[in-house]
Design a protein that fits this description.
By secondary structure, the chain is mainly alpha-helical. The chain contains 16 helices and 2 strands. It has 2 domains: 398 residues, MFS general substrate transporter like domains (Growth Hormone, Chain: A, Up-down Bundle), CATH 1.20.1250; 52 residues. Helices cover 77% and strands 1% of the residues.
Length: 464
């Protein structure tokens, strides 16, 4: 079990320490959407094709999602303190390198290195939060806020990228994660508790499982992303999908047989973990869908500038900011499952409203951009609590890895899955509407399942 040192000395700094970790977590998610709006400008500067842009868009998320379970395992073994420092160093250096990238290949490489650093940082940050709030009630409150902070980072990335690329270069966007990493490394030693390495850890590290997981998530994510752009029957997409599927099957087989698995088979059997992971996945996929479609649509036929596109997403961001604190309070009053149900229903309504998007922004787009983030805030807050309830301190890194993996797979695998439906329509805008509608139906079906879970819990409660 990890050893906690100097915990008493940090009790009066819980607020600043949590704020620091929250800013780090928001920045990791912010970096996902950092290039969303300026993609056309980057394509023009480097002479990129659509396939190149897809690679650039997923270059950060694939190693991030593929290595999160390894990052969680390393956190549980060696303590969150050292993993946070290493992860922030890698993340910050890669961000600085991306800002100075002279070509497409170097930019993609730096985005991938950012993902590696983020995979070490995210589970370590969550493990440190669990030390700051050792009591269950306080930790649940912190997790409700943590979920809202994560989704806020993605929205800020979209809006800020449009503003920055209008006034200066898109390269300045990469200085944000660079600066956050430097500040966290400088002040973290004075604010954060120290989690030392476990002296009783004798099991070997599951490197084979880590390799299979990375290959499965990366190849599968690449196949899904490119398949929606260049066709599912293309050799590259088909090969990547088959390799990803085979690797994930091998990962599942290996994890059931190894003595020290990265993902213990029983961890996701609990309904709380399943509900939390699926909720985060769907909410992240919905956000990615909205960002991707509206950024392309508004800068297409309506001819909006990157700044105007960022302004169009401002109401989305405003609702997320205003809804963060209330979402946490709703979780504590209504319970995580009831809050998740409410969030899913609101998200379904918001996505259905966006399915009717058109040239009139106020009537065709704005209503969905107000209702959807209200539901998304509730989903993330409730799911974060569900993912960490009842998790032992020695598995908090694992919980952080699983939670962030769900958050990362949403904008890649989830987005690609919904965008596949666009091929069923002859007109691209009709296909986008169908994708929104399908995401809304998925949210509604998940809400029905949550209703069954809540009903079953009530029946058990009356029988006791």
């Amino acid at each position: 079990m990890p050893l906690f040192n100097n915990q008493a000395r940090f009790t009066h700094r819980v607020g600043p320490a949590f704020t620091l970790l929250a800013v780090v977590q928001a920045t990791l998610i912010f970096t996902i959407t950092l290039v969303a709006v300026p993609l056309p400008l980057i394509a023009s500067e480097f002479g990129l094709t659509t396939a190149d842009l897809v690679v650039l868009q997923i270059a950060y998320g694939l190693p991030y999602s593929g290595l999160l379970l390894l990052g969680g395992n390393l956190t549980d073994r060696f303590g969150g303190t050292i993993l946070l420092k290493i992860g922030l160093c890698v993340f910050g250096i890669a961000s600085f390198g991306a800002a100075l990238a002279s070509g497409f290949e170097l930019l993609v490489a730096m985005r991938g290195l950012q993902g590696i650093g983020a995979a070490m940082t995210a589970p370590a940050a969550l493990a440190l939060v669990s030390v700051l709030f050792p009591h269950t009630g306080d930790f649940d409150r912190a997790m409700a806020r943590w979920g809202g902070i994560s989704v806020l980072g993605a929205a800020i990335g979209t809006v800020l990228s449009g503003i920055v690329t209008t006034w200066v270069s898109w390269r300045w966007m990469f200085l944000v994660p660079c600066a956050v990493s430097a500040i966290a490394l400088m002040v973290g030693g004075r604010l954060l508790p120290v989690i030392l390495r476990s002296k009783h850890q004798k099991q070997s590290l599951d490197l084979l499982g880590a390799g299979l997981g990375l290959l499965g998530f990366s190849a599968g994510g690449y196949g899904l992303a490119t398949g929606s752009e260049i066709g599912w029957a293309s050799p590259s997409a088909m090969t990547a999908l088959m390799l990803g599927l085979a690797s994930l099957v091998g990962f599942a087989w290996h994890e059931r047989r190894t003595g020290a698995p990265l993902l213990p088979p029983d961890f996701l059997r609990h309904k709380n973990r399943i509900g939390g992971a699926v909720g985060i996945f769907l909410a992240a996929a919905s956000m990615g869908l909205v960002t991707f479609i509206l950024a392309i649509y508004l800068q297409g036929s309506p001819g909006w500038s990157p700044l105007a596109t960022a302004g169009a997403m401002a109401p989305f961001l405003a609702v997320l900011i205003l809804g963060g604190a209330p979402s946490g309070q709703i979780v504590l009053r209504m319970g995580a499952w009831n809050t998740l149900l409410l969030g899913l229903v609101l998200s379904a309504i918001g996505l259905w409203l966006l399915a009717g998007f058109g040239s009139n922004y106020v009537f065709d787009i704005l209503p969905g951009l107000v209702v959807l983030p209200a539901g998304t805030s509730l989903i993330f807050a409730a799911s974060a609590v569900l993912m960490t309830q009842g998790v032992a301190p020695t598995q908090m890194g694992l919980a952080g890895g699983v939670m962030n993996t769900s958050m990362e797979l949403g904008p890649t695998a989830g987005l690609a899955g919904f965008m596949t439906l666009t091929a069923l329509c002859t007109e691209i805008e009709a296909g986008w509407s169908l994708a929104f509608m399908a995401a809304g139906v998925t949210a509604f079906l998940l809400a029905i399942w949550v209703c069954f879970v809540i009903t079953a819990e009530r029946i058990k409660g009356t029988q006791r």
